[in-house]
Design goal:
CATH topology of the largest domain: Spore Coat Polysaccharide Biosynthesis Protein SpsA, Chain A
Order of helices and strands: EHEHHEHEEHEHEHEHEHHHH
Largest sheet: 9 strands, mixed
Number of domains: 2
Helix content: 25-40%
Number of strands: 9
Number of helices: 12
CATH class of the largest domain: Alpha Beta
Shape: globular
Distance between the termini: 50 Å
CATH architecture of the largest domain: Alpha-Beta Complex
Radius of gyration: 20 Å
């Protein structure tokens, strides 16, 4: 089993905690592929702090900056070339909790046909777990699987579920690469939603998912280039454009009626949010014309979302400076 860690940080620190959590597992990974995606902060000083046995398991993969999706794909290729069938993803500012990998591997090897496992997670601010805080998952209708960790088989339309609410995060995902050898991240998605598309494509391949309600990781605050993007930041436009790329990628997919309806809601929400952020920038004297051109290239019909976006944004947002 191999861990894949895409690495692009503006400052040192978070990677050390991620590595300690990785090699402090009750069942550590056999290998860790750390993909340096042209990071401004080099990983070597933080790797040097590892004990010798852990350093021997680290494989540093260097590439020109292409974003987290491309970096994860490089990690997948390296893991496949080295013969690792099961992979676990970890963002370099997240920290696995001690039993995460042991729990996940127990389900993948349990003989129930499970090809991926995801888990609950804890927020960086110490608040309640994500499943409870955001209503992402409940046990009703999802039968218990054999084993001692209380995992449940996901039953239902996973593609529709993922488009409505993300079930898990990439740092809690462990999956059997050999069961899904062609599954990759969309490298165009540099800013957002690559996890949603990956989960949906996993579902469309017929993947069987186990869900562990116990938290598997603690999310980080992030020091990557898109960390801390909030209202008023023009980079929000890139996030909404990525969501529209996901909608375009799935437009011709073999979706169920429920998933197709969820996809349309996802697309409309992205369009309205784009317009709200765009008009906010215009109000501040920063018309984002390049983003507008990208919007119409992706969604020529985007003007149809304009009235709803104006109704939603003018009273609440236009007065803010």
């Amino acid at each position: 089993m191999a861990a894949i860690v895409p690495f692009y940080q503006r400052a040192p620190g978070p990677l050390t905690a991620a590595l300690e959590g990785c090699f402090g597992q009750t069942r550590p990974p056999d290998a860790l592929f750390l993909v340096d995606d042209g990071s401004p902060s080099p990983p070597e000083p933080e790797l040097a702090a590892l004990p010798a046995w852990a350093r021997r398991r680290v494989h540093l993969v260097r590439r020109a900056n292409g974003g987290p999706s491309a970096a994860r794909n490089s990690g997948l290729e390296a893991a496949a070339a080295a013969g690792y069938g099961i992979v676990a993803f970890l963002d370099s500012d997240d920290v696995w909790l001690p039993c995460h990998l042991e729990r996940s591997l127990d389900q993948l090897g349990g003989g129930a046909g499970i090809s991926a496992v995801t888990s609950n997670w804890l927020p960086a601010d110490g608040g309640p777990d994500a499943f409870a805080a955001y209503g992402l998952f409940g046990p009703a209708g999802h039968p218990l699987l054999p084993g001692r960790w209380g995992a449940r088989r996901f039953v239902g339309d996973l593609a529709a579920w993922q488009l409505e609410r993300p079930l898990g995060r990439l740092s809690t995902l462990v999956f059997d690469r050999q069961r899904h050898p062609g599954l990759r991240f969309d490298a165009r998605l540099r800013h957002s939603a690559e996890d949603r598309l990956f989960f949906v494509e996993f579902a469309l391949e017929g993947g069987e998912l186990a869900v562990i309600e116990a938290p598997g990781c603690r999310s980080g605050r992030g020091v990557s280039i898109f960390a801390g993007v909030a209202w008023g930041d023009p980079r929000q436009l890139d996030i909404e454009l990525d969501r529209l790329r996901v909608a375009a990628a799935l437009a011709d997919g073999a979706l169920s009626p429920a998933a197709r309806a969820a996809l349309e809601r996802f697309r409309q929400a992205a369009l309205q949010d784009f317009w709200r952020h765009w008009f906010h920038q215009l109000r501040r004297g920063r018309p984002q014309l390049a983003a507008l051109r990208r919007l119409f290239a992706l969604a020529p019909e985007a003007v149809t979302a304009l009235p709803a976006a104006l109704r939603a944004s003018l009273p609440a947002r236009f007065g803010r400076r």
